[in-house]
Amino acid sequence: MTSSPELLASLRRQFEHWLFDLPEAVGGRALRVVFAPLRYAYALLRDAARGELGLHAMSLVYSTLFAIVPLIAVAFAVLQAFGYQEDIGNILYEFLRPLGEPGRELAGSIMGFVRNLQGTILGTVGFVFLLYTVLSMIQKVEQALNFVWHVERPRSLARRASEYLVVMLVGPAVAIVAMVLLARFEASEAVGRLSGLSGDPATRTHLAPYLMVIGLFMFIYVYMPNIRVRLGPAAVGALFAGALWAAVGALFARIVVYSAQTAAVYAGFAVVLLFLVWLYLSWLILLLGAQFSFYVQHPEHLRTGHEEIPMTPALRERLALSVMCLVGGQFLDGGPRWTLSGLAERLDVPGAVLDDIVSALQLHGLVLDAEDDSVVPARDLAAIRLDAILEAVRHEMPDPRRPAPRPVPAADEAARVADAALGASLSGRSLRDLLRPPG
Predict the structure, then answer these.
(1) Same domain, 232 and 205
(2) 28: alpha, beta or left? (left if phi > 0; alpha if psi -120 to 50)
(3) pTM of this prediction?
């Protein structure tokens, strides 16, 4: 008798066959266009149901609780130079608007903590702790987006120091100035006459907060992952996440209004629970938008998602040779060095797959990681044999966890002969011979 997990797996395989294989087999552009949005919807629902995005969102909620006051304090200090420090409270309230009146009170309390922090003389330990909480939160955002984009390697320490500083100092200033300009532009009479919304500004639907959220999502999608994200997919993902955030916010506000009984049970603690739930939903929406942008840029991963990508030994060998050719060619030409994300985009393979191959090459002393996350040859190209490149991905480094089977003389001899034949077929050729053939 078939068990429930096996039955569900069988139904899933049949549904995927109907969704992905049937339009290609039947043919017709119209059918493929109709099935395209269904594929994206299925991929996002499947990834959300797996729970990994939810775990990253929970981790970000935990980090936010520690970092929200220090982060706003840093932004407050930066914006004092522009005279916009008080606008942070408005931005915070717009984010907490779905909580209703408790959201306004919570925003006021957080801003009170920030002002107290601004007026307190912090010691070295206190300053280091605040800086650590902010940097830890930014790092967790990068880790979550790297997971979405199948990137195994985070930024190097040198890049984190510089690029995280940009997020901490430049990001708040640009965000607040853009928010103020959008609000003033939206409130102008010219825009009101053009849009047919002239009248009482209090009765207008203000779009500036939603445009600001979309812009913030797009900035995070482009800047935070340790891989190059094209502007088009990032914009599509930001629009999707912004629309979903607005819709979920409106629904959440209705739920808060009709949950008076919950507020009576939990008393003053109810606003904290609502705040945690809204934080979780906001982070989950941000990650779903990032996942959508990933699928827009890499639609070939719609079917597999975050499942382990099947690799054959022949494909690993081909990718290892391709990586060494690209890295060695740039070294000989004196051009810009390849990064792991650049190699993944050039070869059109997931970063996680390529990271495993580059790590094997690195363990065998064939490539090195530079401080700027670029990949360079570890030694002279004439000293890198082609059979050594293949051995790096065919014969991994010794590992005590790997089983050591008892010898079978006939089979072991056949494997040895095959390895010797492979080495002889390359005739001792080096990577330089492959890139610059003699004569």
Answers:
(1) yes
(2) left
(3) 0.75
